[in-house]
Predict the 3D structure of the following.
Amino acid sequence: MMRKAKEKPPNLAIELAGISLKNPVMVASGTFGYGEEYAQLVDLNRLGAIVAKTITLKPRLGNEPPRMVETASGVLNSIGLQNVGIDAFINEKLPFFREYDVPLIVSIAGETTDEYVQLAKTLQGEKITGLELNLSCPNIKYDRKLMFAQDAQATHQVVSRVRKATSLPLMVKLSPNVTDIASIAKMCEEAGADGVSLINTFTGMAIDIENRKPILHQITGGLSGPAIKPIALRMVYEVHKTVKIPIIGIGGIMTAGDALEFIIAGAKAVAIGTGNFVDSLTSIKVIDGIREYMVKNKIKDIKSIVGSLKCPKS
Amino acid sequence: MVQVDAKILENREIGSQRYKMALSAPQIGRQAKPGQFIHVRVSKSFPPLLRRPFSVHRVQGQKIEILYKVMGKGTEILSRKKGGEYLDILGPLGKGYQLPSATSKISDIILVAGGTGVASLLFLAESISVANPELSILVLIGAKNREELLSEGDFRRLGCGVEVATENGTKGYKGLVSELLEKCLPLSGDKPKLIVFACGPSEMLKMIGKISRKHRFPCQVSLEERLACGVGACLGCVVKAKGSTYTYKRVCKDGPVFDAGELIWE
Ligand SMILES: Cc1cc2nc3c(=O)[nH]c(=O)nc-3n(C[C@H](O)[C@H](O)[C@H](O)COP(=O)(O)OP(=O)(O)OC[C@H]3O[C@@H](n4cnc5c(N)ncnc54)[C@H](O)[C@@H]3O)c2cc1C
Ligand SMILES: Cc1cc2nc3c(=O)[nH]c(=O)nc-3n(C[C@H](O)[C@H](O)[C@H](O)COP(=O)(O)O)c2cc1C
Ligand code: FES
């Protein structure tokens, strides 16, 4: 009698910009602190990667409260990059990760190109897996009026200069607050980025009608959560048609189904943001759900469905 | 800190738009300290998207209780839950009240509750009366009117002294509970023995903070802010606190209980 060969479990592992990930599910910058906040709730070693809260050269106090308000299936925030600064990050936050076997991607932001370069140089010798350039925080004032990710030339310049300053895998986080995100992604690719993360939050606002005042102290903030998912998905789809470097899909992912939509649209990996607040186990449930989907649909390797969208012929 | 699907044992209306819910959550019950809270996912679908925080009101064996007022869509959904259903809760979270140590000179404790602020203070009163039965606890409860006064009987059963204040004067002192506090303060010579714990609307806490500064007694206040993560990760819930210039503290993690003296009230 022939013994039925035991099905090999599906392969969720991917290679992202030279980084080996156990699975394509990461947690997004600013929504998972420095990892330690969630360590009692989430088995960090199961995550594809952790992207730490954006750090800057100097500590930043962040914006005046109120900083956050819930909107229809979304959240508006104006944290203003409150963070401990690069020195305290290295001395106080990095040691925590030594006990874990999970890739750590460090998100950095500067007000000038020089600051990005300096941050990248400072992190070069540290035990981290990669860098994400946050060119897209909607909640801080830049020297210039636009954020970097809204200006193709500035994007090219900062990415190419950081590229020269570091040998670490380099991701670039893009803003959806642009007319043509694909052209910005193309700039990143030309300047030597290893991948693009999209998207950061959409600028939005909410008003208290009784007092006719903005609810957020900063008046406007960045919108995240399920409300933005369809737009994020369309952007991943457009960028995937334009660049060859890997895409990390972000925006409103709450379930494995959401994550799979991004993967089919062209994202090699995804990151969970606001979903962590709703259910601390969202990332773990997404990983398990992707595996179940693969078993059910007899998909052996997750890589085989990245960008596998079947569009009707026009 | 755990995230569990807890069975609802009871969800009972105790006054107009005010409810008490009992949940079976032994792990949370074992860990919870007075002033800590649980973060509740009121619905698996959204909106509302984010969890809603509620103080631990009471712990009895396997059972924890919350006491809440219907404010908007989240608490409205919560109020319709029935015994036997399950609720996704995360907790216990935050830093609770710091109880006076056995060696401290504290002999008088005043708890000041506004509205649903009684929720966390009952748990505190219970803990103090178990740990230091010789301490005398005076509870001041404030509300708009007589109908909205909560938990008076529960505090009395613990042996606490209770005074009430209503804004419309339908019961007890007519006016704000913060004014009642000033009237109840011991004579100045005895102040070093006094500590005040307060929970309620921010205007009330601000006034009590002022009184504590004026009369120089230690005072801990429990703040409410809109929370997202509840675990200190998102930095969305901060309040201004004293620092070299100032600093921001997270209500969900560095609080919700703070020393009144460390906050910058605006
Ligand atoms: C640590 C902590 C412990 C708490 N413990 C208790 C408790 O034991 N019992 C209890 O009844 N409540 C407690 N609260 C408050 C409770 O969490 C809120 O009332 C609840 O989240 C409201 O949810 P909702 O969806 O019903 O109202 P929503 O629909 O979110 O809001 C209702 C209305 O209130 C306004 N609002 C909501 N939150 C705020 C805010 N922070 N500041 C100003 N306006 C606001 C909204 O704009 C809206 O008009 C606690 C809060 C915190 C932070
Ligand atoms: C409270 C909060 C803080 C954030 N902070 C950062 C940050 O520091 N750096 C960054 O690159 N993105 C930050 N983001 C954006 C998220 O990483 C993510 O791109 C965005 O929220 C969209 O994903 P989501 O809908 O899954 O949340 C933040 C988002 C939120 C909600
Ligand atoms: S609610 Fe996220 S830090 Fe407090």
